[in-house]
Design brief:
The protein has helices at 14-107, 110-121, 127-133, 163-168, 170-183, 213-224, 235-245, 266-276, 303-318; strands at residues 144-145, 148-149, 154-159, 189-194, 252-258, 288-293, 322-325, 356-357. By secondary structure, it is α/β, with parallel strands linked by helices. It has two domains: 45-108; 112-357, von Willebrand factor, type A domain (Rossmann fold), CATH 3.40.50.410. The strands form two sheets. A six-stranded mixed beta sheet has the order 4-3-5-6-7-8. The chain has a two-stranded antiparallel sheet with strand order 1-2. α8 (266-276) packs parallel to α9.
């Protein structure tokens, strides 16, 4: 058998060239596509970086504005607080001025009305009082304790024992108690308590202290060092005195000694006293209420002192008594002495300090 002729293989045939061409074309296409997308990605990163920087700048600016606004807000809040404090001070000043106006308004008519009010405040003495005074003793019609009529058979002292009284005017208070007792030749009994209703002698609670010279000395000696707690409001002592000692057959006078009223309401005290010290069948109050106002330190607030004077003037007027305001012991000039004749001429600078009965 004859051998078939071997076919020669061509390396560079058409199919091979097609494959090579396609492969090269694919590589070229890949290179082209790669070159197109790379600039776009780089451009996007730069934009994001710029946006980030811009946002950071805006954040810094906003934080700066917020800090400025916070400072402005703090300043406004401080200004508002200062205005509120200023309003509070002005309200306090207004209340002080109103209190002074009310206190001075009634004092304007003192000179013209003093004599008439003294006459209206006078009580008729009972037969028992006349017997106690004795046949040889005759009291003038205008003889009074600083303008307060002396015609009671029993007397009760209600004394403010607060620090302002004890540390500043206590010697003056002792002198006025002694002067008051000295004007009464003799009474059936007396009692001493503070404005809280606390008795100086607890053993005499609900009883009358007998009126003897030795007993008066004992009372004054004990009073020099008596310093019971006090809230500078006389209502408790007044109520205790009336409820415990009122009797239809007794003429009783209360003497309220104080310098300040720190209670919440003057009106409530007046109404409370009206209830407990109501009028009897004759149209008279159960007891008389007199008061002596002592000065407070010049460097201390005067508001509570003005309130005490206002309260006691109203109480004395409504309860048949008289109010006496005393001058500052540190000031020079004449002083009111309990028991002096107030009808005699007084210096002009003493007119405001002397008695204003029933006012």
């Amino acid at each position: 058998m004859a051998k078939r002729a071997r076919r020669e293989t061509e390396i560079f045939s058409i199919s091979f060239l097609d494959c090579i061409t396609c492969g090269l074309g694919s590589v070229v296409l890949l290179l082209v596509l790669s070159q197109i997308r790379t600039p776009s990605i780089e451009q996007s990163d730069e934009d994001l970086q710029e946006q980030l920087l811009s946002l950071q700048d805006e954040l810094i600016e906003i934080e700066g504005q917020a800090e400025i606004l916070n400072r402005d807000l703090t300043a406004k809040q401080e200004q508002l607080s200062e205005e509120k404090r200023r309003i509070a001070r002005l309200q306090g000043d207004l209340s002080d001025i109103r209190g002074k106006y009310q206190a001075s308004k009634q004092e304007a008519d003192v000179a013209n009305q003093l004599e008439g009010r003294l006459a209206s405040a006078q009580q008729t003495m009972t037969e028992e009082m006349k017997r106690l005074l004795g046949e040889g003793f005759r009291r003038k019609k205008d003889d009074a304790i600083g303008g307060i009529p002396v015609d009671s058979e029993y007397i009760i002292f209600i004394i403010d024992t607060s620090g302002s009284m004890f540390n500043y005017v206590w010697p003056m208070m002792l002198a006025k108690v002694e002067e008051t007792l000295n004007v009464y030749p003799q009474v059936k009994g007396f009692q001493i308590m503070n404005d809280e209703g606390t008795y100086m002698f607890s053993g005499y609670r609900g009883k009358w202290i007998p009126d003897t010279p030795s007993q008066r000395r004992t009372v004054l000696d004990r009073l020099r060092t008596w310093n019971a707690f006090s809230n500078s409001s006389p209502i408790e002592g007044i109520v205790e005195a009336i409820r415990t000692y009122y009797s239809k057959d007794k003429k009783i006078s209360l003497y309220v000694f104080g310098d300040e009223f720190t209670g919440s309401s003057i009106d409530s005290v007046v109404k409370g006293v009206d209830i407990i010290n109501r009028e009897d069948s004759t149209g008279e109050r159960r007891v008389r209420i007199h008061a002596i106002g002592f000065p407070v330190r010049p460097d201390a607030p005067q508001y509570t002192s003005i309130r005490f004077a206002t309260l006691m003037r109203i109480l004395c007027q409504r309860n048949g008594g008289s109010f006496v305001g005393l001058d500052d012991p540190a000031r020079s000039g004449p002083r009111i002495r309990i028991g002096e004749n107030l009808a005699a001429p007084k210096p002009a600078n003493q007119a405001l300090a002397q008695a204003t009965p029933g006012s």
